[in-house]
Amino acid sequence: MFRTAVRKYSSRVGPKFQSLEQIKEYLKKPTWDTKMLLKGSQKSLEIDIPKLHRLLQLSGLCTELAPGKEGELLNDLNAQLTMMNKLEEIECKEFDLIETQHSPLKYRDIVNATDELKQSKKKGETGQWNPLELASVKSEGFYVVNEKLGKE
What span is annotated as the signal peptide, if there is one (predicted)? Predict the structure, then answer.
């Protein structure tokens, strides 16, 4: 009476590995060189000192740097920019965006989820905490401190 449809997918990239040694040998051979990504291309932009100061300003960081640190940051940023340009040049013809089935999280959902949470004594969640209960001396809802400030 009931029918179930089952589909099995498989794909093949190359010949099947026969042993662990074949896998290790395959992984030893580099197919992608990261140094290639750091070499400049025609459309690479250079980050200069005014751009560096502007980036630091926008990031909320101090723009007054030691002379060596400024050059180091410029080299790092230019290398990152070159790498990003190289990655952008790679064509992705066989790329399919995976469709998502979830709905966006709403404030009311978060409030409902936190209302349903139960306290766990294992985690140290003991309910209401009254810090005045820990005070040895208290008066009218306040701590009483019997110490002097400073040296006399």
Answer: none
